[in-house]
Amino acid sequence: MVVGGVDERRVERRRAACAHRLDAWADGVVAGLDAQEDVERSLLQALRGDPSLREETAVRRADALRAAALGLGPAGCAVAAGVSVRMLRGWQEQDPAFAAAMTAAAELAEQERERAAPVAADVPGLGPAALRVVLKAIREGSVQSSAAALGGWSEQSFLRLRRKSPEVAALLAAARRARAKKADRRGRPRFERGYRLVRVDDGDRGGEAGGEVGADRSDGGGADSGSAAAASGA
Fold first, then answer.
1. Residues 116, 131: one domain?
2. What would the mean pLDDT of 109-132 be, rounded to a whole number?
3. Do 147 and 161 lie in a common domain?
């Protein structure tokens, strides 16, 4: 009996160690969600100092285009770009070239989906870009069902995915931990946005939609176009 008890404790320790490694891995992945975006802005700052509002808007539009090309819908594209759906729609209404690019990106994603349909066994939306959007949304305060919809999953299909993949379950838990840490660190409500300084040039004040880069994702509110601040995606 003593030997059996020792074996059980050993198995339990191994199980706990595996869970700890999985949690540490997931925390690292969630912490790195914005790493590429941060690197690009750091490189831009090294070249020209604080980015202009126009440059900030260009980066966010590129993020939205990439998300559309990977099959995300308007709400998912907005999360990927770090702006509200209203702002993303405004960019398209005020810039026909950008609107055409978004349409072309969505059509490309649809064509890829059709080509993959004969061999795909899973539901649409299962991809790294979609999961990234889900994790970012949860980290920013969304409930799981709403976040899953942003990535193209139904609530039930996402629940099945979470049960099937311990890694996905660990990533979701890590996103929630990151949300709580962010709220505690800032000492303010979870849904309140941070701001990043940008340079506002004379040409940026002409009423273009890029002047609203400071919009809050959750309610569509925006910063004044004459402000020298833009909402941080972190």
1. no
2. 73
3. yes
